[in-house]
Amino acid sequence: xxxxxxxxxxxxxxxxxGALGSMLRFGLGSVIDSNLQKGGSVFSxxxxxxxxxxxxxxxxxxxxxxxxxxxxxxxxTRQFIMIGILGxxxxxxxxxxxxxxxxxxxxxxxxxxxxxxxxxxxxxxxWLGAVLAGSINKMx
Length: 140
Hints:
Strand content: under 5%
Radius of gyration: 17 Å
Shape: globular
C-alpha cells in the first residue's frame, strides 16, 4: 500500500472513531446530566464522568497493548481507539469552557471543584486503567 493510501486510511479510521466517540460522549453526558443536574446549574457531572471513564480506558488500552502487553493491537487499531474514539469521547475542551462559565458566574467553589475533581480523578482513572492492564499482562 502506498504511503498516501496509508495516510488516507489513518484519517478515515481516526475520523470514524472520532464520530463514534463524539456520539458516545453526547449520549452518556446527556443521560447523566438530565438525571443529575438540579436548578439549572452549569456544573456538568456528565462531562466529569466522561473524562474519568475516557482516562481509565486510554490508560488501559495504552498499557494492555504496549510492546510488553498482553494484547497485540495494530498501530491502526490503537489510533482508532486512542486518537479516534477516545479523542472524540473525552471532553476536556468542554470541561474548560464549563469551568470558565462557572468562574464567570461567580460560582468559585463550583469552578474549583470542577478542576480538582476532573484533574485528580482523571489522573486516578488513567492510573487505574494502566494498573489493571498491567495486572492482566502479568497473568499466565
